[in-house]
Amino acid sequence: MRRLIGAAVAPLLRAVHSAAMRLAAAQLKGIGWDYWECVLNGGDDSKFSLIGRFVVTDVEPSHSATLDWSASALQLQAASAEKAVIKGWDKSGRRVVGTMLVERDPSTDWSEVVLRVMASAPEPKNAGAGMSSHIALPYELPEITQTTLSRTPTALIHVRGATSKQLILAGVASESLTSGTWGSMLSMGIIAESGTSPVLIGARLELVVAGAVAAPQDRELIAESLRHVVAWSEQFFGRQIAGRIVVLLHDGETIYRSGILLARPVVFGLGTPPTFPWEFDIVASVAMMWLGEGCRLVGTRGTSVAMGIGHGISLYRLRVLGDETYLGQAIRALQQGAKKSDSEWAASASHPSQAGIAKLALSVFEALKARPETARQIQDFTNDNWGYTVSERELMTAVAQWGVSVPTAMLRR
Description:
Blueprint (H helix, E strand, L loop, with lengths): L1 H23 L6 E10 L6 E10 L7 E5 L6 E8 L1 E4 L11 E6 L9 E7 L12 E5 L5 E2 L6 E3 L2 E5 L6 E6 L11 E2 L2 E5 L4 E4 L4 E6 L5 H22 L5 E7 L5 E3 L2 E4 L14 H9 L9 E2 L4 H19 L3 H15 L15 H17 L1 H13 L3 E3 L1 H10 L12
Parallel strand pairs: 1-11, 16-17, 17-19, 20-21
Antiparallel strand pairs: 1-2, 2-7, 3-6, 3-9, 4-7, 5-6, 8-14, 10-21, 11-13, 12-14, 12-17, 15-16, 18-19
């Protein structure tokens, strides 16, 4: 019954979202994404279809749109467009190299153009270490380079089709849907993994642990740890989350993307006891569910800024909990990282500057300590922009208003 309701409601939600998108963009110039559909094939592999629909403003843009795929790891099997022609696609290696040009028929409006691609999750880069194959949407979706939209409703990602035994869905769900109904999301992760062990976090969030965790008590420990972090974060940001987190255990750094939390077992206290508070990295990563997913930040420095804010909030949490020992360790580690050259801010969104993140984190922490209104301003910014895509320029303006000293290199155009 739930699936039938979801199938009936989804077209209406897309229509409402499309109308809201056009209304919000009515006074801006450019092309944006209306929504994406992810069609699962329900088979035994990780292939799926992505269908993207364009949206335009009241100002008619050019007849072509340049799509930048450089940041995407998607393995494309095929691409086509309705009422448009695709040019400049290098099919070598089953992926787009650089950009793709979509030229619409001059007699056709952009809102009638639909892009279809058949894709699969990339092969894991570290398969020997048990790394799962996964993608994170909308990070892997192409960016329309010539758009000038600075704040628009986030393109919803709608899921239809059956999930195979090897596919797990994660992400932050759209609050337009009934709790527990998986249909549309603000962000989505697709993981190809077998032998998973689901553990329920709570009524709104579900945790799935994937990786080399054998003992049930270990899965319960991870779930309990995240339960506390998520509950504290919901209180800090003033907004509850609906969705699912999938924890992928691996040997690399801790990072959160579209419902996927990559972390080493040791950060949860499994195996060798950590010498550093595991909460520090986990809280900073989970904060991306609010700043980065629900409130989507874009731009070359958007990811780095969001991570810097998240680490500053993590420091603040240690102070609130009265954990002075771990707080001192975390501050000293960030101070060491902040001593690196500002020239590292040349890094892209996919390679964030560790020095810049450290400097911003310390500045956010000092502002949260000195100004009680800073926490409220972060909360207001997140809630005011929930379900919206926010440009780097608008974000930097807001950060300065929070009483945060922004690293000078971050202000450079």
